[in-house]
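Researcher: I'm preparing a figure for a lab meeting and need a structural model of a single chain. I don't have an experimental structure, so a prediction will have to do for now. The sequence is pasted below. Please return the structure as tokens so I can convert it later.
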Amino acid sequence: MKDILQAFGRAFRSMLHPRMLALTIWPMLVALAAWLGLAWFYWDTWAQWLSAMLAASDVVGWLQQHGFSGVLRYSVWVLQWLLLVPLILITALLIAALVEMPLIVSFIAARDYPALERRRGGTVAGSVVNALVAVLVFAALWVVTLPLWLTGVLVPVLPVVLSAYLNQRLFRYDALSDHASAEEYRAIRESSWGRMYVLGALLALLYYVPLFNLMVPVLSGLAFTHFGLAELARLRRVNKLPSPPISTS
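Model: Understood. Here is the structure written out token by token.
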């Protein structure tokens, strides 16, 4: 847990640097402007699509027949927001991961890990594929769990759990792709998956803090870069330790 909190604290410290502050807010603002703009023009169209989908279900049909048509309108409104919020989140995180992570990694490596050798085990294509897989799995999990959202079951927990997955899957590759070899990346991923998930969950909790949640995409990149490079430095130190002598007794 200590290394998770260290990465979290170092990310806050790094975010206060003018170069990082310049990157901090615009991913979320761009995502908000893009999706709220689309919602302004297409909200009624989306509502019609969702209404048609829900009306085809047996449960909603039964409710309408028995005078509960308001349930359909309420369900459509809730579903629209439940789909819009993750789209905004995904867009902001993708901007941070694909556009800003190279700048973040170079900044942190130069300041905190100048002696760490760049073995360039990752590629741009690998970063894009990793981002696509992360988004597709996150979107599938969000859709599959929609019934739980509508019934109120696990509502306080689901956003954190799903966002934690997205955070760790989206940022771990880019944090290490420039410095770690392919073998080193696999070793860190296998040994640190649980801790990276906890770090992702801590960052996900910050989305509940008004105004500060605008900074979470870049803060996530900073935190995972600090965590990943620290783990890589530790792994290389361990690998350089001399082997103990073989006992002859």
